[in-house]
Amino acid sequence: MTEQLLRVMNFCVSRDGIACGPGEDQSLEEPFGLPRPERLFSWAGATASWPNRTDPGGSRGLDDYFTRDFPRNIGAEIMGRNKFGPQRGPWQDHDWQGWWGDEPPFRTPVFVMTHHSRPSFTLSDTTFHFVEGDPKTVLEQAKEAAQGQDVRLGGGVTTVRQFLDADLVDTLHVAVAPVELGSGLRLWDSPDELEDRFNHEAVPSASGVVHHLYWRR
Ligand SMILES: NC(=O)c1ccc[n+]([C@@H]2O[C@H](COP(=O)([O-])OP(=O)(O)OC[C@H]3O[C@@H](n4cnc5c(N)ncnc54)[C@H](OP(=O)(O)O)[C@@H]3O)[C@@H](O)[C@H]2O)c1
Predict the structure, then answer these.
(1) CATH number for the domain including 29?
(2) Is residue 171 part of a domain?
(3) Which end of the chain is more exposed for a tag (fewer CB within 10 A), N or C?
């Protein structure tokens, strides 16, 4: 059996390393806590394979490759509670079932890390489980659920940093958009800072985004 990887995929940051607004700025209207998050993500939305595309067309170059690759060989996702939604503390509103509507794009088990318990639920072919534990234990759970496929580490920043600190991440793809945001939650100070542990290739795309690819040394 091939090795199961933990993969960060299509994680979007600005040139100054910002992935989203500070946590207190997140709201139902602004999932990313930023007034104009589309500047980080527009490269993916412009591709032919963008799942929410309503009109024909779209680019079929490098950006499209990463958009298409998102579900490939992924059997489970791990995400932090703030990626799942804007509630903080004990769950007050169980009607809130994530940002993604009745058909979440994951189509796998999703492990939402939180210190506050909540029953699992299923929407279409995605089941959300709410788990507390150290990253290694949560990864073991997710790998078992993934049944031999890889596990995607979906973010946000706190969660990705936590798994990086525990040295559990096998590959990362970070898309750096040609914008400066100045403040917010920062993934890194520089794309070079992971090079002690990871091989690193930076591949510029015609859209102006630079795709940074990392894999373990
Ligand atoms: N730019 C991108 O590509 C991208 C991708 C994904 C997400 N985002 C954005 O990132 C933001 C969220 O990031 P974030 O850093 O604020 O939060 P996050 O990583 O999504 O979630 C952090 C929360 O997860 C829970 N948690 C983390 N580790 C845990 C553990 N070991 N055990 C139990 N619970 C644990 C804690 O919640 P409790 O203590 O409350 O339980 C913690 O406050 C959102 O705005 C989202 O839209 C951006």
Answers:
(1) 3.40.430.10
(2) yes
(3) N
Mean pLDDT on 141-168: 97
Most confident of 19-33, 64-78, 85-99: 64-78
- Ligand 1 centroid–CA 160 distance in Å is 8
Q: 83 alpha carbon to ligand 1 midpoint, in Å?
A: 5
- Using a 6 Å cutoff on CB, does residue 23 contact ligand 1? yes
DSSP collapsed to 3 states, the chain:
CCCCCEEEEEEEEECCCEEECCHHHCCCCCCCCCCCCHHHHHHHHCECCCCCCCCCCCECCHHHHHHHHCCCCEEEEEEEHHHHCCCCCCCCCCCCCCCCCCCCCCCCEEEEECCCCCCCEEECCEEEEEECCCHHHHHHHHHHHHCCCEEEECCCHHHHHHHHHCCCCCEEEEEEECCCCCCCEECCCCHHHHCCCEEEEEEECCCCCEEEEEEEC
> Nearest C-alpha to atom 14 of ligand 1 is from which residue?
156
Examine residue 96 and state whether it is found in any structural domain, yes or no.
no
pTM comes to 0.95
15, 28, 115, best to mutate for ligand 1 pocket (most atoms within 8 Å of CB) = 115
Cα 156 to averaged position of ligand 1 atoms, centre (Å): 4
